[in-house]
Amino acid sequence: MRTLAIIPARRGSKGLPGKHLLDLGGSPMIAWTLEAALDASRIDEVLVTSDEPRILALAKRMGAETIERPAELAGDMITSEPVVEHALRSRAELPERIVLLQPTSPLRDAIDIDEALERLESTGAEAVISVVEPRHHPLKCMRVGPDGCLRGLVDGRSPFRSRQSLPRVWMPNGAIYAIGCSIFLAEQSFLARRTLPHPMPSERSVDVDGPADLDQARREFAKGWLPRRAKSALDPSSIGALVEASPSRLRVASPRLASTRPRARKESLLDASGPPAHQSSRS
Q1: What is the mean pLDDT of residues 131-149?
Q2: Is position 281 within any domain?
Q3: By residue range, what is the domain housing residue 165?
């Protein structure tokens, strides 16, 4: 059963311009998602869809397939579903399963991906979505009614109940969306009738949408975060040299060994076409 990973990476971002190519742990942020996808043992092919030439060039150098995203699918109101469908329709043969990996979740690693796909395969579920427990329970939220007065979001008692008495809830963390390809094309959604959760810890659930999120991801790196490896993998801290010197994939035996190597120059990628574009767009 073949599995295709799709990584969508648009050029622009309103909250954090050029975010996919911003430095994170010595590499462009998108490199960490590319590495995780290429390292995952349950993924057969990795496809990057983007309207940014430098992202497409980096993906090719790391060993992924690429497709140039048309302008009509690069606007700030475009959701992931039509982008994924466009990528699938461009292929001569469809895979049995797809997994959407957003590059704004750089701390999700190959083990997370493999575990989610194993859950999809072993349970007979139609889809699996990665989730995290929210810091604040949604039933404690309130809304303002038509009269301008506060109301409980669901009822008037839940905002004042103890967290322990409320049902356990989960929030999609944006890291992994795995689903059967035929189901996705039929439903035009990653949420199928029988979708199971893949819980992830908060430290690996950082979703980089703005400067504060990027700072949080950088703090995780500063605390010593390293991706868990499913197989021999690329060292993202050496990607600058890889792009500059050779299209072949660089493999290292240990991420800790890799972290002792001199940091490679990322400027060869980022300077080749000037600074990241500051086009306003969702990612």
Answers
A1: 93
A2: no
A3: 134-169
